[in-house]
Every structure is written in structure tokens, then in C-alpha cells.
Amino acid sequence: MSDDFDINFSDFDISFTGQSAIGGTDPVNEILSFLNDENTLAALDKLDEYRAAVGGTPLMRHLLALATLRIGRMLPALKVMQTAHDDQPEAFEHAEVLSVLYSSLGKHSDGVYYAKLSTALKPYYPQYQLVPAWLVSAGTAFLATEENPLVDYGYGFLASDEIDKAAEIFLDAIELDNANAPAWRGLIETKRRSGQVGHRLRAAEALVELEGRTAEDLVIYAQCLVAAGEVGMAWSAAQRALQAAEQDPVAIAQCLPGLVRYDSAVTPDRALELSQSWNALAVVSSEPINVTQRESDESLFRVGILSGAMHIESERAPILSTIEECLSRTAQIYYYSNLAIEDSISRRLRRGAAAWRNIHDIDDETVATMMRNDGIQILIDLDGYDWTGRPGIVQRMPAPVVLCAFGAPGCIPGAEKGALALGEPGFPLFLDDTSAGVQIASGLSTWPLYEDLEEDPPDSPVTGAMRVFIDAPVGRLSDSFLEMVADAVRQGFHGTLVMYGDEANDEIANEILRERFTNAGLDLNTVERISKETTLEEAIDGIDLVLDTFPLPGVEVALTALRHGVPVLSVQPGRPENAAVTSLLRSLGLTSWVQEDREALAKKLALLSQDPETIRASRQSIAKSVLDAGTVVTINQRGREFATLFDKLLAKAVGHE
Predict the structure, then answer these.
(1) Does residue 600 contact residue 290 with C-beta atoms inside 8 Å?
(2) For the chain, what is the total number of helices (H) and then of strands (E)?
(3) Which residues pair with residue 336 across a beta bridge?
């Protein structure tokens, strides 16, 4: 053996055969066997015992690196293996594993270097199974992804909803290459799903600083700004996105009228101008549609529902229930879902559907053709210009009657081609000419049947001062909402504000929130905070009143509160797109809880806090209103209203009216 490769086996501090310091025979083989069988937890437990007995030897770190790789952490595995190699550079196994890891991470020159080093060392080192076959096969699989193996791996975890693992992988990819845009996008998505709006914003800021940023990246940044409550900056980001969209500006331009619903300062004229600008930009020819009317009153309509927000936390939840409970009695429902991921709500809707079309990766023209082939008579668009929507489909008028739910006439996609706003009495319409809108007298929203109602909700367990609940992710708390709360305090509000908000470890979101409270003249330290780790049902327990946020409503919280008999205090929205909660309250006959403006809301909140027992006594009557809304009589009545409206609109489409 050459003097250059003199091995000191004592560095490993353990024999390869016979009894070990931790009992049993050959713990190294045990650990390798566990890893080979994908029993990584048992391997890690054994490694802890091994490390306690022998310390941080190169062999121990080699095994730890293999276990770390087995749980999907390639970069930490490489770092641990590198330390083992640095401590014992003569071991060919270290070099061989490093060659696989570097190559798998796209560091091909490093991979070649360690492969050559391993080949040079191998003849002078005893054979031992520290380079398992599964490691080589894993490296081969990663190499098949070529440019960004870690990024593809991270998106695999995202697809299986393993958010924490995906975030770790994306961070590893960014550490390897800080200019890796797909890794930054993946990290932004993990932060969105985990509700960390502040961290999501910081990742988006890093993304748009990259040299190769796209118009789509700037739209992502605008969305992150909105989620963090920075709506003013979001307008600038959206404008930059539009300027960068040289090839196809139509889809990017959607974000400008889409931003309107998040900004209470936008005037009706400005909203109309943005909508008309998008419609002019997105001009497409419409094919003539054959209008088919019902043969008899017993015949069912063919109704299409277009949305990217058919999920459990959707602001459209009340109208989704209306569609399932009421509309399905008069129509065959065809769903066109612009959402890749399904949950319990989308699966429930799917069970009662005549057809379910997942369209999130299908172009607008193909989807419009699909709708024509399905023979859709009435298409109901739930999203309008919102970022979950597909206004390009609506612009093609793929059905003889197209309705935009909670839309304002003129301020919807396809308005100049005949698309109509679908609303209910009492909502603002923005235009003097209301002929471009149609209404459902008893309201669009009803109680969601996918929640079990409590026949007898418990009496309020609260005593003393009133406890007011606010659904408060930082982006939902607009400056105007916080100013309204400050007005209520000045008028004598006496009680405790309970905020159900962002993750406690999202220090960026907390910093933004604290600054916003201070600007409104409020002290965040006086507010009780409840983490999202607490379920809504648990959080609502012990609450007297839910204060609905504006301009964006907190639908999920309102639904949960009303189910428990807890009243929801809301304000007439500035625009129909934000009317889900007020529509729900109207449909339940709880109109006294809807105030006409923010000044009236502040005054009402202050007055109610002076007499909390009156609110506590209202729980049973609210629960009864909820139960009454779910009766067969109410459901049939709404179904008949939709049928009458649809017959009228179809007759008008063929010129019979």
C-alpha cells in the first residue's frame, strides 16, 4: 500500500464485526439495513444510540448523511458527507457518495472530480457496503430531471401536500443557486399554503429582483402584496407586469380590474374604466350560439358554473351551496373548475354534477368550445376578473346567456357582448342603467349544506365585557377597517378584540400588522391573538360577536359563527364582488346586522358593547334563522326563482320577449 493512502482505522472508533459498544452485532449493518428497507425513523433512532457511544466520527456522519438523504434532504446530506470526507479524505466511500450527491444536485464538475477521486482511492481501501444500491438509483433518478433536480423534487412534495418538506427542498435549491427562479416560485407557494404572508412577500421580493423575472412573476408579487395588505404597492407591481407582457398582455391585464375589489378607495368610474379597457384588449370573435329553450316546465336547464374558487375556504362558499341545494333542482350542473387541487367541497360538488371539467391548464378557446359542445344554456361565472377567474372564456360568450355572479353591470368580462351581472336587491350596481343586471329577489347566498347545523346551539359561556372576533390575516385588515375600529373605541367601545390571524412565527406579517394598528391609533398589544393552529370551532367558543372585515369579507368565519348562533356584524359592501357575507345575512333574514356604511358600523359596535347580554340572548333566534334557511320550502322557492329567471333570459335571447 502506498504511504499516500495510510489508513487509521481508529478514526472510525468501532469494529466492523463482533460486539459493539451499544450492544448487538454490527450497528452499522443494522442502520444500513433499516435504510435499505426505507425504515428511516428506526435508522435515525439507532444513529442516536451510535453517536452517543462513539461520538461524531466520520463513519457516523457518513451514515447520518445517508439517512438525511433518505428523508429527502439532499443538500444537508451533502454537507454532512462533506464534513466526513474532510475528516477522512482517504475513504473512497465518502468520495463516491459525494460524486452521486453533487451530480444529482446539478454540480456536474464537482461530481466528476469526486468520481475520479473515488476511483483512485478504491484499490487501497477495504470493501464495505457504505455506498448502497438505492443511493445510486436515487442519483440516477435525480439526474433524469437535468437542470433543477431539487426543484422538481420540491414540486413533488407540493403535489402530495407535504408543505414543510417542499419548503425545505426549495430552500436547499436556493442555497445552491440563489438565482433559481422556479425554486423561489415554489417557496412562495409553500408560504401561501402555510399562511405565512410576510415570508411569502419576502420570497416574492427576491423573485422579482432576479434578472430573468417575467410578467407572471410580477403578478405573483402583486398577489403577495395584496395578501400583506400593501394594496397601493400592488397596483404598481401590476402595472409593471402589464408593461413586461410583450407577447400576451391580455391575461396579465386581468390583474388590474381584479385589484379593484381589494381597494376600497377605487371609485366606480375607475372600476368601469379598467373593466372596459380589458374588454377592449381582449376582443375575440364570438360564434353564433343555437339557443335551446326548455320543452316544458319539468325539463331541466343545462347550466355551467365557471370558477377557480370551488374549495373549502372560498368566499364563494354560500353561493356554491345555493348552486348545489337550489339550482340543482331545476338544472343539470356542469362545473368548469380552474383549480388543480380538489378538496372535500369540490369533491362534494362533483358527486352531484352532470359533468366536472378540470380546465386549469386548458386554453380559453378550447374551454369555450367545450361549453358549446356541452350545450350549456346558461353560464354562471363566479369569479369575474379575480385572479382565480378565466375572463377570457366569458369574453367568448360560449352560451346564449352568460351571468356574472355578484358583478356590477358594465364592470364584468364580456359586458359589451351581452354578459349580464347577477346580483340581488340592495347591492350597488355602479351604473344608472341597470338593464345590464338581473336579480334574485331572495338572494344568491344560502346556508352551506356541507356543514352540520346544530339544532340547539349552547348558550354563550361568556360573562363580563363583550368579546369581538376578527378574522385577521394581515391582508384582510384594510386601513379603512382599522380606522372604523378606532372610531368605535372613541365612541365608547368596551370589550376585548380577539384576532384570529397569521402564524406567530411570521415576524414580517406581525411587523406590518403592528405598524398598521399604530397608524390607525390602535395598540396591537391590547388585542388578544389566536393562532390559526386553533380550529375555528374552538376559536369561536366564548365569542359574543364576529366583526366582518371590509372590503374583503371573512366568509369562512361568518359561516362557522352563524352555525354556532354567534351574530355577525357587517357593512354594506362598496362593490358587489365583496358581498358574500352581507348576501348570506340577507338570505337568512338577519338584515339588522348589516350596517349602511363604516360610520354606522362603528356606532353600532360601540352601542352593542354597552349591553353584551342582549347579544348573548340572540343566539337561539340566529340559530333558528339558519335552520329555517335550510328547509325544503326555502330551497324550492329559490329553485323556482332561478327557473323563472332562466326562462325569461332564454326567451329574450331568441327574441321572444
Answers:
(1) no
(2) 29, 13
(3) 306, 357
Q: 596-642, pLDDT tens digit by residue?
A: 999 999 999 999 999 888 888 888 888 888 877 777 888 888 889 99
Cα end-to-end span (Å), the chain: 101
pLDDT tens profile 523-548: 888 888 888 778 888 888 889 999 99
pTM: 0.78
Distance from C-alpha of 422 to C-alpha of 404, rounded to nearest angstrom? 5
Give how far the C-alpha of residue 464 lies from the chain's centroid of Cα atoms, to the nearest Å: 37
Distance between CA 284 and CA 449 in Å, rounded? Answer: 39
Q: Residue 95 to residues 4, 160, 172, 583, 622: CA-CA distances in angstroms? A: 16, 33, 21, 66, 70
Of 43-47, 444-448, 584-588, 595-599, the least confident: 444-448
- Residue in 40, 49, 121 with CA at minimum distance from that of residue 85: 121
pLDDT of residue 222: 95
DSSP string, 37-76: TT-HHHHHHHHHHHHHHH-S-HHHHHHHHHHHHHTT-HHH
The radius of gyration of the chain's CA atoms, rounded to the nearest angstrom, is 30
The three cell numbers of residue 342 are 380538489
> Long-range CB contacts (< 8 A, 24+ apart) of 325-328?
325/446, 325/449, 325/630, 325/635, 325/638, 326/446, 326/635, 326/638, 326/639, 326/642, 327/303, 327/638, 327/639, 327/642, 328/352
Using the structure block, give the residue that is written with the C-alpha cell 355578484.
Answer: 406
pLDDT digits (tens, 9 = 90+) for 77-129: 888 888 988 888 888 888 888 888 887 777 767 777 787 777 777 765 555 57
Cα–Cα dist 171/152, whole Å: 13
Nearest CA among 191, 192, 222 for reference residue 205 = 222
pLDDT average, residue stretch 138-165? 74
Say how far apart CA 210 and CA 199 lie, in whole Å. Answer: 17
CB 400 within 8 A of CB 655: no
Sign of CA dihedral 71, 76, 77, 83: negative
Dihedral sign of CA atoms 549, 550, 556, 560 in order: positive
Residue 67: what are its φ and ψ, rounded to 5°?
-65, -40
With H, G, I as helix, E, B as strand and everything else as coil, classify residue 422.
strand
pLDDT band per the 50, 70, 90 thresholds, residue 359: very high
Other C-beta atoms closer than 10 Å to the C-beta of 610 total 12
CA-wise closest residue to 308 among 390, 216, 422: 390
Biggest CA–CA distance in the chain, Å, is 101
Residue 217 grid cell = 412573476
